[in-house]
Design a protein that fits this description.
This protein is an alpha+beta fold and about 325 residues long. The protein folds into two domains: about 160 residues, Lysozyme (Orthogonal Bundle); about 120 residues, endopeptidase fold (from Nostoc punctiforme), CATH 3.90.1720.10. The strands form two sheets. The protein has a five-stranded antiparallel sheet. Helix 2 packs across helix 9 and helix 4 packs parallel to helix 7. The protein starts with 17 loop residues before the first helix and ends in an 8-residue tail after the last strand. About 50% of the residues are buried. The N terminus is likely disordered. Belongs to the peptidase C40 family. This is Cell wall-associated hydrolase, NlpC family.
Length: about 325
């Protein structure tokens, strides 16, 4: 579950911009979340319990401009659509912040939302943050109040959990539920990077597996270079299989030059590379970290890291 920093500070200002996150995840997300074919894809239908999917689809229209996939992404990240067995989902509170219910509301925040908005019939009497119907509709109203009503998607998500990584994770998860972009549809440099990111976001939550090449190859998960190899293979670009050989294959991003979404970021030393991730913008990467962990979005730099540089597989190649 998330860190539950949903304090009762309705209307808190966001500190990141929509272009930064949208640019990080790719233009496909703009279509998915701001118009176009915003219907549940096969992954959404398989992963989301039907009663929750119905609630997300019903609640989103109460806030013009809100995609059902944003609600679904929050529900997935917070409690796996109510399936989590951790404390605070069906009763009690998840941590010392006091979050509870399938959408992880603070009681004060939930009370404030339901005082301002009348929830439709179908929930508990009085409304309860533990009731899925009430929780999902209240989440839609909260997002609307905190940014969707003024066209600021980032502010809305940031108000739910005050962390940049959370915004990126929600957007990435939403894309996996609603994106209709097919593999390798366009292999121009920009679209190849976007497709690699689209593919990698679709693997969020899968387990790290040493030597893993992903479900398409019959494995439960990926290791770090297996993920980047598969991501670029989906865009029609073949990479060497290991992190070290991917680093050597280049083309190298010159030191001091800004990274762009789709770059591969490496760790170790030039002669001994041990890890690789896929940069998605806004200082974030998608990577398969290590044993016992899942594929996730995380900062690509941190105190004490051994960052070795980046390559740009999607760069135009000389003829």
């Amino acid at each position: 579950m998330g860190s539950r920093l949903k304090l009762a500070l309705i209307g808190a200002a966001a500190v990141i911009s929509i272009p930064a996150i949208i640019g990080a995840i790719g233009n496909g997300l703009v279509t998915a979340l701001f118009g176009g074919d915003d219907q549940p894809n096969q992954q959404a239908i398989v992963d989301i319990p039907s009663d929750y999917l119905d609630l997300y689809l019903a609640a989103a229209p109460t806030c013009p401009g809100l995609s059902w996939s944003i609600l679904a992404a929050i529900g997935k990240i917070e409690t796996d659509h109510g399936r989590s067995q951790l404390p605070g989902v069906r009763e009690g509170e998840e941590n010392n912040k006091g979050a509870g219910g399938p959408m992880q509301f603070l009681q004060a925040t939930f009370t404030s939302v339901t005082a301002r908005h009348t929830l439709p019939p179908g929930g508990a009497t009085p409304p309860s943050r533990y009731n899925p119907h009430d929780a999902v509709f209240a989440a839609a109203h909260l997002l609307c109040d905190n940014g969707i009503n003024r066209g600021d998607l980032n502010a809305a998500i940031y108000s739910y959990n005050h962390a940049d990584w959370y915004v990126a994770q929600v957007l990435a998860q939403a894309q996996t539920y609603s994106s209709t972009i097919g593999r390798g549809a366009d292999t121009s440099p920009a679209s190849a990077a976007q497709q690699a990111i689209n593919y990698a976001t679709g693997q969020l939550g899968l387990p790290y597996q040493w030597g893993g090449n992903g479900p398409d190859a019959g494995d439960a998960g990926f290791d770090c270079s297996g993920l980047t190899t598969a991501a670029y293979a989906s865009a029609g670009i073949t990479l060497p299989r290991t992190a070290a050989t991917q680093f050597r294959a280049g083309p190298r991003v010159p030191e001091g030059q800004s990274l762009i979404p789709g770059d591969l970021v490496f760790y170790g030393t030039p002669s001994r590379i041990h890890h690789v991730g896929l940069y998605v913008g806004n200082g974030q990467m998608i990577h398969a970290p290590d044993f016992g962990q899942k594929i996730k979005t995380a900062p690509y730099r941190w105190r004490g890291d051994d960052y070795a540089g980046a390559t740009r597989p999607h760069a135009p190649r000389p003829l």
